[in-house]
Amino acid sequence: MFVKQAHIPSPEQLAAELPLTPELAAIKKERDKLTMDVIAGRTDKLLLIIGPCSAHESAPVLEYVRRLGKLNERVKDKLVIVPRIYTNKPRTKGVGYKGMFSQPDPENKEDIVRGIRTIRELHINAISESGLSAADEMLYPENYPFLEDLLTYIAVGARSSENQMHRLVSSGIDLPVGIKNPMGGSIPVMLNSIFAAQSPQVFKYGNYQVATDGNEYAHAVLRGMVDSYGNDIPNFHYETVMRVFEGYQRSKGELKNPAVIIDANHSNSGKQFKQQIRIVEEVMQNRLYDADFKKIVKGFMIESFLVEGNQKHDIVFGQSITDPCLGWEDTERLVLDIAEKA
Fold first, then answer.
1. Are the C-beta atoms of residues 296 and 244 closer than 8 Å to each other?
2. Which of 136, 195, 297, 303 is the most exposed place for a label (fewest CB within 10 A)?
3. What is the DSSP secondary structure assignment for residue 227, as one 8-state letter?
4. How many CB atoms lie within 10 A of CB 64?
């Protein structure tokens, strides 16, 4: 049984209530182009999708993004930095804190209308205060229209990459969409998802039959896998990346803009957040070793916040309440190191 709790205004109504100003929209457009240029290989810069596992409170996220904006000025000749402002949190068992979209206050009950308003304000302030537009995970395709004018990068998670609606909606997004390998790690399934997202589609979306042109910026994200016993198996190593490269090659041009982003956390690190530093270092070394590896690896996803680790409740300012993250000092050193070696 469904119990109607609150009416949610349309995406158009909420965007009109909390609009992105023309000045900020121009910044976002420029950032969109920089990000697309990386995926398409029109620049040698590396893409960094970096920030907290989930954005549970606006104030620490804004402080983090302000610092990231200043750091970006030091590395912008080598890197394109896109902050993670992830506002929907997937749950393995389907219960628990589901992100700012549902719970703008993680200690209180769901309030989706307030959540959407909080997210829009957060994104607008983040662009204004840092000059950087953000990434989010498209956990629920029907929620994307509430944020589509604010984001520069979209992620499709491991649990969603086989889902038909995620693939179809990705085909209509005019931005880079990173599609993660499924939890079981199948490279063919991931490449099939990318093919679907890059292809023109016709489907029902909202109250309309819609047609899309396909999204040539859909690309692969390697996040590690989980075996049938629940063990984390990394897939950031040279051998797996080159299998993805070979899969792109076998498509004979059907898959456009071959690109891999390495997710340094999740099953690649076994959620041992400090291991992200070692993983990035190994990938950067492999880029020196093989020109094809360098050509296809376009960047990293890194989980990072003001204070390292995590906590169960929102007590420490700037510490994750979901998965553990690198702290700011390690983050700054890592970003500078990547820029130096890029």
1. yes
2. 195
3. -
4. 26
* Alpha-carbon gap, residue 153 to 53, rounded angstroms: 15
Query: β-strands 232-233, 225-226: how paired?
Result: antiparallel
Q: What are phi and psi of 139, to 5 degrees?
A: -70, -40
CATH number at residue 165: 3.20.20.70
Task: Print the domain residue range for 157.
Answer: 11-341
Among residues 247, 244, 228, which one has the least CA distance to residue 236?
A: 244
Q: How many domains does the chain have?
A: 1
Q: What is the pTM of this model?
A: 0.96
Secondary structure letter of residue 8 according to DSSP: P
Strand partners, 310: 320
Tokens describing residue 108:
């209180």
d(CA 58, CA 3): 30
Q: Report the amino acid identity of residue 85.
A: I
Structural domain includes residue 162: yes
Query: How confident is the model over 242-288, as pLDDT tens digits?
Result: 999 999 999 999 999 999 999 999 999 999 999 999 999 999 999 99
Q: Which two tokens stand for residue 17?
A: 């209530």
Q: Is residue 44 part of a domain?
A: yes
Q: Which tokens belong to 16?
A: 């009109």
